[in-house]
Amino acid sequence: MKSSAKKTKKKVAILGATSHIAKGLIENFSKTSEYESYLYARSTEKVSVFLEERGISKNMAIAAFDMFPLAEYDVVINCVGIGRPEKIEEVGFDIFTITEKFDNLVIDYLQKNRKCIYINFSSGAVYGKNFIRPVDQGSISSLNVNSIDISDAYGLAKINSEAKHRALQGYNIVDIRIFSYFSRDIDINSKFLLSEAISSINDNETLLTTEDDIIRDYIHPHDLFQLVAACINKSGTNDVFDAYSKKPVTKFELFDLLARKYNFKYKVKVGVGKDSSTGVKSIYYSKNHKAKTIGYNPKYTSVEAISDESSKMIRTNHE
């Protein structure tokens, strides 16, 4: 005889619910009946507006950060961070204080709720600043300790969190390193390559770009959710995983896609390089596919992720 008992939903707290990554996770969590989500943010109004725009109403509770310690969760996902590259130099020292504040908030919670799973979003920046080849499981982080500057701060803050987490053996803590992620929820005014490209399409302008053909690995929101779900299902884990798509893409492959699809126009400015607040990232992706050991198998290539999500952002007169 089959049991008539209902399966208990897993309670998931998402910190930083207005962030780029959080929005994709929220939408995917809303599509399954397995989870009940608690969304925490500085602006609860912005979260409410987002849910209304997407037509999301079920299994979602919204609250300010100070309410976080008062409920019980099976999973806590930390999406708090600096979302725009141009903000890194601006916030300076606060990169460390913001990261520490919310990481410690969750760790304090874990110490009272040992069975809870903590999923933290880290970054490929932990490997250093200069990427001239893809990283892998044998890659070592590089840092000139006699010449540390603001461009090192972001990666150092993430390394510090990862080191704390690995030291907390016996706790269920997983770090997911993001290299590149793209969705319709990206801040169109940020200085990311795809934000600038899509703004150029919508404004019918020509984008000026450098001649270097960089490589990126854009994760689709569906695939990132699948990686998070795999981490949730692999309980009793204290580990770190690099996020990756089915296949990375070069800048000019990306531009050719947008040109074919939306009449995107760009002009190469020869002899001019572009500075980055987090270092030079010519080849920024990981061949460390350890995540497949916990069942992660990405569905989308970078090109497919960009094609799918950009179609939701381009104004109709360009379609």
Question: Secondary-structure blueprint of this entry?
Answer:
Layout: E1 10-15, H1 20-30, E2 35-40, H2 44-54, E3 60-63, E4 75-78, H3 87-91, H4 94-112, E5 117-123, H5 150-167, E6 172-178, E7 180-181, H6 193-202, E8 206-210, E9 215-216, E10 218-219, H7 221-233, E11 238-242, E12 249-250, H8 251-262, E13 265-269, E14 283-284, H9 302-310
Parallel strand pairs: 1-2, 1-4, 2-3, 4-5, 5-6, 6-11, 7-10, 8-13, 9-14
Antiparallel strand pairs: 9-12
Kindly provide the radius of gyration, computed on alpha-carbon positions and rounded to a whole number of angstroms. 20 Å
Instruction: Report on the biggest sheet.
Output: 7 strands, parallel
* Integer average pLDDT: 91
Helix percent reads 25-40%
CATH topology of the domain at 81-186 and 218-245 and 286-299: Rossmann fold
Main sheet: strand order: 3-2-1-4-5-6-11
* Assigned CATH superfamily of the domain at 81-186 and 218-245 and 286-299: NAD(P)-binding Rossmann-like Domain
Shape: globular
In DSSP terms (H or I, runs of 4 or more residues), the helix count works out at: 9
Distance between the termini: 55 Å
CATH structural architecture of the domain at 81-186 and 218-245 and 286-299? 3-Layer(aba) Sandwich
Regions with pLDDT < 50 over 5+ consecutive residues?
none
The total beta strand count reads: 14
CATH class of the domain at 81-186 and 218-245 and 286-299: Alpha Beta
Helix/strand-derived category reads alpha/beta
